[in-house]
């Protein structure tokens, strides 16, 4: 059940989508039938979203994306719309299903050069989809720029032309659509920026591609939805004790910088850790004591004191980094926690502390994961792009890597779950599993928001959720908390929204 629902959230590579098509066609559904259904889905979206759009332009490229445009044009013509089709290559040059679709269309067709967006109420973009192979240039690039400058709404077929389905990158230039109709499953480029913003509202149409094909294909990248992790979350039981829900620890920074750790600690408690303790340097104990209530407080002045605290094996999840200060102490504490068998969320200054010797961190993470014996990553890294660059400079600067590729490579190298933050946060595990998040609002880009996230991750780890699922769940919840609050959000507001998020999670399906 959980497996099937997760498969609904799969994001397919070009090769995986091609394989799903191939298996479907081999099982008896001809390609032209898939194209016809794709066209019906596009026409349905157009008629439902733009009931008043009379003058419709269909732009048709040289491949099957263009074939979909011809087939959609034919349906809209039959529905009584004033349709004109503009083609990048003459119809007689098309091949296969696209040639058949073009032959079945008997409305007006002209070369692309005759297209003027101002003369239409709506434009259907069928220039390029999954087959985009290089940057747009010349006549097509100029046309796309004129189209974007015009006020005419655009519905894109499969992907806005110019957007890479694999990475969400703009190749040359790309269509800015109001809506995009894709088929069978989304692709990473629908969720990764800037692709996500170019897509507008995405509708996924089931055109009859066999979903059982996914069992053979076994995709490893998913939209971050509860189906991925809800079955791995700990549910507090009636007979449970607070120790059943784990004991999280947050390291506080010095007296003048304790707020970030308190945000993380409060979030950890709200997110379900049974107990949360702040480990504070001596100089910050008073200021922390003055602010904490349910969160407990312990002095932790140096590695000796830390070693003695770590003797308590009930302390099982740690947050190090928010407001902590970068340097030798952070490195020593992180290594000590991992060596003691704790699971560690390393954020902010904790990440930056390893910029001169990332390999030391990766070696500690590898040793900790091996010592666990269940190959479960003991380390969760939560960098924004600047922090990511400090630990993985070569991956960050390599040409042609998507955010998804970057997070996956980093996770493998660091032997850690990597949460590469942003509007399109990617969560990646060393074994190649990845999730792209779609919850949240622009208000999440606020001071302290990341500190709260690290606390929510730690709460899931403390309760025994595996690291990938813990991180993915936390990112989703963090985004949902922001959505639940709405405008005017500051980081302090997020923990208080978590009860609503949990209630919503219980009430809804995947
Ligand atoms: N199950 C499904 O998802 C179905 C999808 N359908 C639709 O099919 C397209 C994919 O079709 P495909 O033919 O593979 O690819 P495209 O139509 O996107 O584009 C390929 C052609 O475009 C040329 N190309 C590529 N990049 C450029 C560029 N920058 N400038 C100019 N021309 C370009 C490419 O030329 P090559 O020289 O590289 O060969 C091709 O001619 C999918 O997106 C759906 O819309 C099916 O209708 C049904 C099932
Ligand atoms: K397109």
Outline the structure in words.
It is a single chain. The chain is an alpha/beta fold and 510 residues long. It folds into two domains: 218 residues, Rossmann fold (3-Layer(aba) Sandwich); 262 residues, 3-Layer(aba) Sandwich (UDP-N-acetylmuramoyl-L-alanine:D-glutamate ligase). It contains 21 helices and 17 strands. The strands form two sheets. Strands 8-17-16-15-14-13-12-9-10-11 form a ten-stranded mixed beta sheet, sandwiched between helices. Strands 3-2-1-4-5-6-7 form a seven-stranded parallel beta sheet, with helices on one face. The longest helix is centred in the N-terminal third of the chain and has 19 residues. It starts with a helix and ends with a helix. Bound molecules: ligand LZDS7PUF and potassium ion. The site of ligand LZDS7PUF has 28 residues, from helix 2, helix 3 and helix 4.
């Amino acid at each position: 059940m959980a497996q099937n629902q997760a498969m609904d959230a799969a994001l397919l590579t070009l090769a995986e989508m091609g394989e799903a098509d191939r298996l479907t066609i081999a099982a008896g559904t001809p390609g032209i039938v898939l194209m016809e259904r794709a066209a019906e889905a596009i026409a349905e979206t157009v008629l439902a979203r733009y009931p008043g759009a009379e003058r419709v332009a269909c732009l048709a490229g040289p491949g099957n994306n263009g074939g979909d445009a011809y087939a959609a044009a034919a349906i809209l013509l039959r529905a009584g719309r004033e349709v004109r089709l503009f083609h990048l290559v003459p119809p007689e040059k098309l091949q296969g299903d696209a040639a058949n679709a073009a032959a079945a269309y008997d409305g007006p067709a002209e070369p692309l050069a005759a297209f003027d967006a101002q003369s239409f109420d709506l434009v259907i973009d069928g220039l390029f989809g999954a087959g985009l192979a290089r940057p747009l240039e010349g006549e097509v690039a100029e046309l796309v720029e004129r189209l974007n400058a015009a006020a005419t709404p655009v519905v894109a077929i499969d992907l806005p032309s110019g957007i890479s389905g694999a990475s969400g990158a703009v190749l040359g230039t790309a269509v800015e659509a109001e809506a995009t109709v894709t088929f069978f499953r989304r692709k990473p480029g629908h969720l990764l920026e800037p692709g996500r913003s170019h897509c507008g509202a995405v509708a996924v149409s089931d055109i009859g591609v066999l979903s059982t094909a996914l069992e053979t294909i076994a995709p490893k990248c998913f939209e971050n939805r509860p189906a991925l992790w809800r079955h791995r979350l700990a549910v507090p039981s009636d007979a449970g004790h607070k120790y059943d829900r784990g004991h999280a620890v947050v390291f506080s920074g010095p007296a003048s910088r304790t707020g970030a750790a308190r945000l993380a600690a409060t979030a950890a408690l709200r997110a379900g850790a049974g107990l949360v303790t702040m480990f504070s340097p001596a100089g910050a104990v008073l200021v922390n004591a003055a602010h904490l209530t349910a969160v407990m407080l312990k002095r932790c002045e140096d590695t000796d004191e830390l070693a003695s605290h770590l003797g308590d094996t009930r302390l099982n999840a740690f947050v190090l980094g928010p407001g902590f200060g970068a340097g030798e102490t952070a490195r020593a504490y992180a290594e000590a926690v991992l060596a003691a068998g704790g699971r560690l969320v390393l954020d902010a200054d904790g990440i930056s502390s390893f910029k001169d010797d990332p390999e030391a961190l990766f070696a500690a993470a590898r040793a900790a994961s091996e010592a666990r014996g269940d190959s479960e990553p003991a380390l969760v890294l939560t960098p924004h792009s600047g922090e990511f660059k400090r630990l993985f400079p070569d991956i960050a600067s390599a040409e042609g890597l998507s955010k998804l590729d970057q997070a996956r490579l980093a996770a493998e190298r660091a032997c850690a779950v990597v949460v590469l933050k942003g509007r399109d946060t990617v969560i990646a595990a060393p074994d190649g599993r990845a999730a792209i998040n779609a919850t949240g609002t622009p208000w999440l880009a606020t001071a302290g928001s990341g500190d709260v996230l690290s606390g929510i991750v730690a709460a899931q780890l403390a309760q025994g959720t595996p690291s990938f699922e813990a991180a993915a769940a936390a990112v989703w919840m963090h985004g949902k908390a922001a959505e639940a609050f709405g405008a005017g959000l500051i980081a302090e507001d997020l923990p208080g929204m978590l009860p609503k998020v949990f209630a919503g999670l219980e009430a809804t399906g995947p």
